[in-house]
Each structure stands twice: as structure tokens, then as C-alpha cells.
Amino acid sequence: MTMSNQGMSGTSGRFPLDNLTYDLITIIYEKSKGLEAYDKYLRDAQGNQEISRLLQQIRQQDEQHIEQLRQHLGHMLATQGGMQSREVGGTMGGTSGTMGSTSGTTMGEMGTREGMERS
Fold this sequence. Notes:
Blueprint: H1 19-44, H2 49-79, H3 85-93, H4 107-110
Helix pairs in contact: 1-2, 2-3
């Protein structure tokens, strides 16, 4: 049985998150790691203004996407009776509003899907 077929909560077994919530957390995490990579790429492109501008633009768009995803995640968690949306921003947001390696919350602390496979 897939998680989407398991009732309104969409949870199964010991994993407390439905697929969509898990997906949003994963996207936020991966995009946040990507922001760190862009910082390196921007340093490498310092001599090329055109590439630097392009990378800065892409990085800013990713930051905006992360913020939008965080807002949706907070709303989903609040409506599911999980954490309050302000806790989501405070726990995962750090000072930059993204979930990075210095935020204090790791993916391991959020739980893992059995075998990290989709149901």
C-alpha cells in the first residue's frame, strides 16, 4: 500500500510524515546545500562579470524558492497538528531563512524513510 492510499494523515508505520511533507523537507535541504555550492562557484567566477551575475541571479532565485517552500511546509505542519509554523522557521531557518549545515537540525533528526525509498 502506498502512503497516498493510507488515509488522510498519509503516514504509515513509524514514519510520522507523509510523502509530500518529506519531499518538501528534502527539497529545502538539498537546495540549501546548493546555496553553499553557489558561493564556491561565485568565488571561482570572480574574474567573469557575466557569469558572476548569472550565478548570483540563480542563487537569489533558489533562496526565494527555499523561502516559499519553507512557508508551505510550515503551513502543512501547522494544519496537520504537527509543529507550529513559527517553530518551523525558527528550527530550520537559522539566520538566513534556509536549512543549512549550521542550522542545528539535521535530516537525521527529522527522521528517515525506511531505506530512503519511496512507497
